[in-house]
Amino acid sequence: MANGWIRQTGYPVIGLSLGGGTAGERGAPDAPPVVELRQRRFFAERGAAARAPAAHWLVPIVLRFRDATGIKEQTVLLADEMARVPIAAEGEVVWCIGNAEARGFYRTAYDADALARLLPAVGELRPAERVVLISDAWALVRAGEAPIEQFLDLVASLREEIDHVVLDELVGRLSVIEHRFLADADRDRFGAFVTDLFGARAAALGWAPASDGVEDDEKRLRRSVLLRALVLLARAPEAVREAERRLPSSAGTSQLDPNLLDIVVSAAARGADEKTFEELRTRARSEADPATKRRYLHALARVETRALTSRAVELALADDVPMQDFSSYVGVLLGNRATRDAAFALIRDRWTETRAKADSPMILRRLVEGMAALPERRHLDEVRAFLAAHPIDGATQATAQTLERMQMDAALRDRIIGPVGAWMKRFTDGVLSRTVPPTKKT
User: How far is the CA of 126 from the CAs of 64, 132, 164, 219, in angstroms?
Assistant: First the structure.
């Protein structure tokens, strides 16, 4: 068993489908329930499987499922490419997850029926199983093996989620969609979707513990991830205003939960006026703690006010940004849609100054890696041309990896940006149809 895992490259994706136990399979109402398992090597790049030799593993699999009597587990050793495994179930298998407790080293790809059974039952899964369900679903979308609509349906099914680890996984994936795969015309709908998912629970928790101040870590961390979604992803106006209001004063007297500090600083920076910008700049200069200093420095790179974006970009080559923070500061600029084009233009048009400030092989590598934050195909073309004209000794691998990552993301953007917008429209139209009363006929 071990040889397959240590002597060949990669790991498998296990396709899972359910059969038997229902009247639907071959017209046999009493057919015993079975699970069909298929394995093949997983590739993150779409189409890569066609260019690679076949591979298979001895895969220990633990299934967890609900039948007529309760939730049970069953172990399977998948030795062949495909196996139909009888399930020790009484009656119909209501749902089945193919990686119990996320213990297996493989992806799981559910067919449409198996996934449709899982979505209404996600609350019965363990937190680790919900995390791996999200992770696998997103990986399959990236690989071109599942539609983005399937992933978004899964996200919508988790609207009652309370575990902060699962919420963090959800918000992390939604952050990637918001940054890379969302058209500007769909941003309001995306914000409405995120607000619908998380707004009520964020409002129930509020920004601070109850008056007695007694609160466990789980609740504090849940509050943090919910407010991050509401403020930084949904950009819900009331939540954003509250975050800006809670920016700690320079006197340091704030009672703000430290878990919320990045949220309020980022919100304040995005909507900063001249006064707030200079206040953040002063704190970035004067703070003694390196982590706090970097927080305020990076905040300057998150500004979105048109009058301040050019100043934020110019600061990259100023003394405000020390050499050791240069690549990370520029990386934040490149990830900010209000500054990314100007930031890349700074690198390209003032390369001599940029190269002089990034006077370290490690910083140059990180600078190149930061360019992968640019999301569009036109950015890929610009970065490829720039790096071809300015090869960097010591960053050959970083250059190849960055261009490969940008190529994959550009291809994914081309493939899913339209379907994401269409799904968001269907979702928001559905919400409106449920909440707006019909017009009375006269």
Answer: 10, 10, 13, 18
Q: Which two tokens stand for residue 208?
A: 């601070």
Tokens representing 167 are: 């919420």
φ/ψ bin of 144: left (φ > 0), alpha (ψ from -120 to 50), beta (otherwise):
left
**CA end-to-end span of the chain, whole Å?**
74
Q: What is the reported pTM? A: 0.91
User: Which residues make Cβ contacts (< 8 Å) with residue 212, sequence separation at least 6?
Assistant: none
Distance separating alpha carbons of residues 60 and 379, to the nearest angstrom: 43
Query: Rounded CA gap, 266 and 224, in Å?
Result: 13
Q: Which portions of the chain are predicted below pLDDT 50?
A: 22-27, 436-442
CATH of 1-127, one of 3.40.1650.10, 3.40.710.10, 2.60.40.1910, 2.130.10.10: 2.60.40.1910
CA distance 70 to 64: 11
Q: Give the pLDDT confidence of 317-368 residue by residue, as tens digits.
A: 999 999 999 999 999 999 999 999 999 999 999 999 999 999 899 999 999 9
**Segments making up each domain of the chain, as ranges:** 1-127
CB atoms within 10 A of CB 264: 24
